[in-house]
Amino acid sequence: MKPFKFDFIILPVFGLLLVLAFWHAIAGKKIAITNATGAIVEEKRVGLIPALPNVIETWQSSRPYLVEPFAKRGEMDQGILRFTWYSLILVAKGYALALLIGTPVGFLLGLSPTFAKMFDPLIQILRPVSPLAWLPLGLVLFLGAGKEAGTWGALFTIAICSMWPTVLNTAVGVRAVPQDYLNVGRVLKLSPWKTLTKILLPATLPYMFTGFRLSLGIAWLVIVAAEMLTGRPGVGGFLWQEYNSLIYEHIILSILTIGLVGFVLDRLMGLVERRFKTA
């Protein structure tokens, strides 16, 4: 049995403690100003960055959202995990659309030089466009959906922003398939479907999963912008509401939640990738 390496736990925990200590050191804190009789006449914040809440203040203010993570007190006053769940559902739908569209497009780009010459320049033009630019177009496209226009606009934005890594990595994977593999398929007189499933797909799978992981990260990133602009309940919507209310403790809570969920999603996709590679 291999000895357990504690540095996988100790070093990340030590790094986290250092970050928390640094945060607490530069953050502000409240002090009470008293008069000659000892009565408090004013409270003010002091510190390197006075407006930045420290670790203790952030915990105290965020505690209701963490202790009751699935509570629903109002549309925009819910537990942090309930907000996260709303965001994840929308991300899953948009991400599924991105894969359903992006994977075939990637295969076409890799297999057909004519298709690549026609559409690769267009892809390179559209790929760097910000989700903040796509969302208004999505809302316009789905105005007929009424109250659901925001949801469909967000799905459109997530799908179109997150599919490009899948498209490009799939195309690279198809182009990297050795010509000998395809020649063997021709000798064996494999049908196009069998050539795809028996030769192209297994050889391209590592490239595809690289694109899938990148696309998932972008999809999670886009949901925050989409919820902030549409006002939907979710982590992004909650962050935007607390920003408008100048509640910095909850902004920090939202940022930490977004980062942790993104980390977990990436690790889960890594597990799925390893499972397919060993299958």
Overview features:
279 residues; mainly alpha; 2 domains; two-stranded antiparallel ribbon; 10 helices; 74% helix
Task: Provide a compact summary of the structure.
This protein has 279 residues and is mostly helical. It has helices at residues 7-26, 55-67, 80-111, 113-126, 131-141, 149-175, 179-187, 192-230, 235-244, 248-278, and strands at residues 29-34, 40-46, 72-74, 77-78.
What does it look like?
- The protein is built from ten helices and four strands, in the order αββαββαααααααα.
- The protein has 279 residues and is mostly helical.
- It folds into two domains: 7-52, no CATH class; 72-278, MetI-like fold.
- The strands form two sheets. It has a two-stranded antiparallel sheet with strand order 1-2.
- A hairpin with a 5-residue loop joins strand 1 (29-34) and strand 2 (40-46).
- It is elongated, with a radius of gyration of 25 Å.
Strand order of the largest sheet: 1-2
In CATH, what is the class of the largest domain? Mainly Alpha
Total separate domains: 2
Helix/strand structural class: mainly alpha
Binned, the helix content reads: over 70%
User: Could you tell me the radius of gyration in angstroms?
Assistant: 25 Å
Helix-strand pattern, N to C?
A: HEEHEEHHHHHHHH
- Poorly predicted sequence stretches spanning 5 or more consecutive residues: none
Report the average pLDDT across residues.
85
Number of strands: 4
- Let me know the largest β-sheet: 2 strands, antiparallel
> What is the CATH T-level topology of the largest domain?
MetI-like fold
Count every helix, treating DSSP H or I runs of 4 or more residues as helices. Answer: 10
User: Which CATH architecture of the largest domain?
Assistant: Orthogonal Bundle
Portion in beta strands: 5-15%
Looking at the structure, what is the overall shape?
Answer: elongated
The CATH homologous superfamily name of the largest domain equals MetI-like
CA-CA gap between termini? 25 Å
